[in-house]
## 1
Amino acid sequence: MSERKATIASRVGLHARPASIFAAAVGELPLEVTISLETDPAEDAMDASSILSLMSLGAANGDVVVLRAEGDGADAALDSLVKILETDLDAE
Amino acid sequence: MIGIVVVSHSPKLARAAVELALEMVGVAGPAIAIAAGAGEGVTGTDAFKVAEAIAEVSSPEGVLVMMDLGSAVMSAEMALEFLEDPDIPVRLSSAPFVEGLMAAVVRAAGGATLAEVEREARGALGAKQSHLGDEDPAGLTVDTGPAAEHTIEVTLLNPDGLHARPVSMLITALSTLEATVTVANLRTGQAPVPANSPTALLTVGARKGDTISVAAAGRQAVEALEAVSDLVGKGFGELGTVPARAPEPSPAQPQARPASGALSSGPLSSGPLSSGPLGVSPGLAVGPIVRMPEPLDEPGPVAELPVSEREAAADRIVAASASVALTLREKAARVSGAARGILDATALMAEDPGLIDAAVSRVTGQGDVPERAVWAAVGEVAAVFTQQGGLLAARIPDLNDVRNRIVSELLGRPAPGLPDRSEPYVLVARDLAPADTALIDPAVCRAIVTVEGGPTSHTAILARALGLPAVVAVRDALDLPEGSVVIVDGTTGEIVVDPTDDQMVRAEEQIGRVATFDGTGQTRDGHRVQLLANVASPDSVAEAIEAKAEGVGLFRTEFCFLDHAEAPGLDEQVAAYRQVFAAFPGRKVTIRTLDAGADKPLAFVTAADEVNPALGIRGYRTAWRRPELLDTQLQAIATAAAAEDAVVGVMAPMIATVDEAVDFAARCAAHGLHNVGVMIETPAAAITAGPILERVDFASLGTNDLAQYTMAADRLMGELALLNDPWQPAVLRMIREACQAGLAAEKPVGVCGEAAADPMLAAILVGLGATSLSMSPRALGGVAELLGAVTVDQCRDAAVAAADAGSTGAARSAAAALLEPARA
């Protein structure tokens, strides 16, 4: 199991546009990735490819989330996902 | 007040009948309960439901039961045997369903007894029978009371005469008075009818211009006649809607009138709470009607799926979701910007793995049919969103859109949302959701007509942005048949259904004529009003010149600062400002210093943690924190102005005190800038415009912020749009305050907000005393044209009427009436 922490950079938090960009990126990976708030227990982690789950996670700007994945290439995949979360997607 | 139970085979029929009846009485109607359908979506009636409905609305004064037909009567009779409280009087009415219900609701709202209501309902066919010439109309044999002691004759002024709504107002007004009143139509010579009976009053058939004789007896007879006279004299409150209807035909200028359509003047076309059709985005368009598909209802419960069929049913959900997502992605590929983002996100939601899993497990686990499974699965997500509130709750409409699309796909119905057309059409909808409007293509959608909505609704704002004519609050719009050709006038709110050839020719001529501006703004009688352009960056200068703007009334400088981590340097600013100044040699260019904060945050001047940014460090206040930014900018403006020939004025945003104006003028003077002004965007500045104008050379009204602060209503909240309307009389009075100060000081006061782009409002602003109007270049033609068609006195009269009006609707109506010749 690989695990990464990321700080949400988008001003509005992990909301509509940022969430859709992130969910689409996760959806393209051949891995199952979960996401949870740093403050929540690991068993509450949700499917990171689900835009609805991402939105209901309610991660605000500055919140820290934990990404988890298992399997080949998990580390590289998580690194790329962290990069997306730590970019202010609204500013683009 | 008695209670009313409506028994019908069809829940839809019952709801529609109740809705229609309640339109007559507004909010203060009697308690009504519906017992309709035999449950499980089956047409029929159910005695238990009727009994429950009676219990629900029971009152000591009694309950009247209205039924549609056949077994409804039997169910209602049986229900009487189940009643828990035998002391409540309950009557079953033999009245006609629709007419009777309407009459009963009106009478019950007026506080009549069970027996009176029942009798009224039973006689409710009278109006129709009398109109159609049937023998012996029922219900007209009501006693007209003792001989009248007082009589008046009054002439009806309102466009539709004594139709349903005025009748209901009349009865309500008289219901509290101790008087017996009768009404007779002198034109028809028919016998007087009692004025407490809606059906009887409707048979009077009094039209606009008819004189009615009103007789009253009893202790308060005089008061009763005064009440009637007052209502008639005020046209039952309907005179204000005249401009929204077809203009009166005049021999000199034949005018289009609604031909045969439901929209002409049907008595039910304007309920008591609505202001009738309202043009909210100016312009004229012709096209066939295309209706938005009606929204979906929740799929009713049906039998559990057998286990053997569940897997196939689950596969249908996956297929439907994929198909919806694909359609949405295809649509996304055809648009750009924000619309594309919305559609991409919606596509992701449509095939959200969590959502699909939840729906599929409802099918495989408990045997739900796919459409119900999807409906319920989305409902669960929506509940989470609702609970979290805020931004998430705001996404619920998108979620419901996804649900509707998938369920429609499963049911094989047309996808909800904007129709896919390539030929021009007029869009008719109950209301438009933002997701729909994002896709409207002004090249094919020629006009928008909606049942709901007001002048500041989403539809109205969008239509104006797209330059599409729009009419809202057209209550019977959905009755217009798909495909029939209509002429839509978004200025007057008039809709002509199935126009004649003549009307078509005239409309097309008018559409072909593009309003242009000749470069000199003035009223018909030569009162000069400078018409200027708002310019947001050097890129938009060409458009302003193309539109023949007399100059620039608002040159926004934020473009220089956006996307910068730190303020731009002097040279960069000088170069940018020179580009705009150079385009207007010898012309006025009013440049505004940096206006950051609130909805325009800039990293280097605004703090991210303000609780209430609209009331925080914004506008001129940012200079408190970073005075050197303002000094650099003023230096850049002075340098650029010296290098070019434009007549440069410089103004500060968001001034609230005289001291700020003095401070700004001093800073400008230090940089050699002498034509100095301030923006009046706060009520504080509007009210103290006199002393402010003693210290500066000019002022410019920012109407968007002035409306926001006057009405204490956040501009960015759609829900507050009705308050954030520059037509609010309070805002108009603020503007007047500032303009009058300008006239007294003999210093120019212009308007550079959104308001100046609305031609009718532009005329009001001129009437209030504005000396120049600055707007987006595309609005110049329309504003110049209207101003050129009216006199300055007309503008002044309209301004007085609008500022004195009691509401935005009344302000618009009054202005439209007084500026009317402009549209002839």
## 2
Amino acid sequence: MSIQNTQTGTEETTTIQQKVLENKRPAAIWAVGMLVLVGLEFGRITGWVVTAGGVAALIFDLFVSLPAIIGSNVGGVFGFAGDFVATGVRLVTTVAVALLLLAIPAGTVRRLLPVSPAKELRPEMPVNIRLLVDRAIVTLGLFVAALLIVLTPVGGAVDSIIAAIQSLFDSAASVQTLTSRETIPNQGYESPSGSGWEGTFMGLSPALAWALRVTVIYLYATLLVFWIWKGYTTYRQHYREADWTPLDDSIDRFRGHKWGLFGLAVVFAFLVLAIWAPVMGPTTIEANHYEPYSNEFQYLGDSGDVQSTFHGTANIQSRSNGDSNVGPMSYDDYGRWAPFGTNADGKDLFTFLAFGARTSLVIGLVTIGLSGMFALILALVSSYYKGIIDLVAVMGSDTVQSIPALLLILMLMVTLREFEHPIVGIYDGGILLAFILAFTYWPGLWRSIRGPTLQVSESEWIDAAKSYGQKPSVIMRKHMAPYVLAYMLIYASLILGTIIITTAALSFLGIGIGAPTPEWGRMIESGRGYISTQSWHISTIPGIMIVFVVIGFNALGDAIRDAIDIEADISGESATGGAA
Amino acid sequence: MSQEIAHSERQRDEDVLIQVRDLKTYYGSEQLIGGRPVKAVDGVNFEISRGETLGLVGESGCGKTTLGRTLLQLETPTAGEIRFDGTDITTLRGYELKEWRRNAQMVFQDPDSSLNQRMTVGEIVREPLDVYEWKTPQQRRQRVRELLDTVGLKREHYYRYPHQFSGGQRQRVGIARTLTLEPEFIVLDEPVSALDVSVQAEVINLLERLQDEFGLTYLFIAHDLSVVRHISDRVAVMYLGNIMEIGPTEELFTDPANPYTRSLLSAIPAPDPTSQKERVHLRGTPPNPRYPPSGCPFRTRCPVRIRPEEYEQLDEEIWDSLNRLEEILEERRRSRGAVDRFREKVGLDTRYATAAEIREELFEPLAVPDQVESVLDDVSAEIEAGDEMAAIEVLQAEFRTVCGSEKPSHHTVSDSGRTSYCHRHRDEHRDPKTAFEERT
């Protein structure tokens, strides 16, 4: 928000910037703390940014290629009419789709423009037409810019600039951080002299070094969350204009919810495990799991000298298959620490499970993100406009719900795998599974929030907003969505647990996520035969983890529901007060 | 008479702000399968002068809120026109409609429901300014603070949430929001009925003060007659989608012309406990607006309904029972489906009472004259034959008068231009007042 130094007269409003300037201390303390925390993990955080950028680039590429794809498809239909016609149709369609796509960001760009092009041309134009003309002009401008980039050397220059920025980020991402494997290394060999360990952190045993690193990771993550919370409380105490907001009550209620705090703790542990997966395991997933025969390590041989071997070779000797066993909290014969033991292939179970958490989280978030977004938008639109749109939504969701989900998953997974569709390649079918689950979950989500959305849509504040001409999109976003989001949050946390179980169950059955992507369900399946032997841990540990994570998400959902106290929210009957 | 109306209309023409002609708002007619619409507003005519307060009263469900909402284009009228300053606003679309909306705002009944509890009071009051991108954000905040001041709240309440206020204060926030765009016309939809009595007076006084200060025009919807009497310049009485009587407040309250107004006003408790005022009890509940009675909408409950000459002296209770009988038959005729007809054909039990049961229930303790008795026999015969339509026709042939067969017209009943919607104002009938005195 820009501060305009107009003649403000009895201006009483202070912006947040002014408030911070008046009382610098709390903000400064917080900012310094945050800088230190970010600085400690600068490389990792940059790595996250790079990943996010990669995903964004992927989606961007999809949109960029859309006009050409649609164009050639439509052009192909006209193939019977001869090459000339087909090419013409293809060109026209491509340009039309490109213009339509560009018209979407054009609205935002128009708002950012300091002048209105149409007003410059014809000042007497009515406002509604002027806005349209402006948007059309901006769209054309964007189109010309896009053409310039695609068809002229400008494109090459842009590409090289992007590449330079990317490599800058990449090198920043490789900077060693507090929680890096290099900072607290745990892989080493017993020194031949018998005076401890070589290569590990301060000569500690691999077990201790690993435990130390995991502790540091969890400490850091806890501190980071605490500091963000601290930032919120600092803002609330020193800089927020309102002395009370409805959210305060919800937060207070949540803080008193023991079961919910337990859930939060479990979910937090799960999230940290997934996010810091690459440095969680005693060994890296590449060396131990993906490419065991291209990575060597050193160990103290029987003859008392330091030898080196491939992980793969060592894995064969460290299998837990009933006969031989490397159980939880033990070393294998090569001095490699296995906190959760090894699996039937002799690979480290903990490393596998840490990455399995990541897989579950990604699938869960993609599923919830897609289906939740769709359900929310559909619920808002269908309950705002009601009538025929609502009817179509009901029929659509009924149709989707009538498809047996398991059958659909089986069919799509098998056929797409057979055809080696590129989407199967991501996470060995994980993303595909997420898409299918999103498709089967949205009707349920939509049904769950449809009631509350309809209820909110009947509120008089919606009528009030209509009566002063507020746009429907803004009404939905500002006056309806906040009330529905509470429900979304509850259902999302409940469903996230279900998705994790479903994914594990499908992988257990062999139709979910294929090897080699780590997945808990597949590990349970692979250890099934050894459950009654000394190698019981292969199935048991991931099973217990799934149980905990799902219970955790459910507890969190319960607590959010209790904290938000939806009844009071929508009916407004039991006002919880605050300082009036 | 028509000359008179034309004359008075011309006089007021210059300062008329709102002119409503044959306005109809029907609900539920967009069903996929035919169906009858709910006639919430069924042909309404009135006008409101600039700076005037028009009170709109009536029982719940009579369509007064729908009328208010239609005036603000929150509902789309089925027919008719609404002229605001000469423009027919029912034809406005898109940008023009949005621009017009600045001129007309609404205060809602329930301040709990009309304020978004997730927004601060400041954001709520500011939102209309944001919609029209009024000046700079800072000037908007400034204006909001001034408005809070205007409606009797504190300027520092900007960052409070609706939860932190009492009902009366919340209603003030709602009022501040309607004032933001400086409208000319405000629909007040029962603005005080959700408030404590002690707070009601404060809000009413605020509304009056604001009207003087900003020259506002009010449509004041309420079912509390004493509040309406206090604040309104003119009052319109609504029943089942029709305006039954409309005219200057005092005149209407002291000398109601329409039978419905008379019944409604007699429901006001008199502050004098020794008062021997004759209360007119309205019988039954208002009819279903999906199936309004033919002719006059009030005829099914009217205490002074015009009767056929030969039944003029018939007992009041028998009349009631006859009315009930017609209602029951109508309802049966509407609800009888194919299944029922089939069950009757094959001699199965239907869920309907027999003619004898109905008669017993309606007429048992009454001394029914022979003449009526013979009509009832005919009706029973038709019911037994399963033909309600014929039964109704028999009843109507005997008892129907102009009240059931023709819609009344709005008769001017005083020099001030007050009109009343009743057949009894015709020269050939005694007027409602005389009829009341005779019947009670």
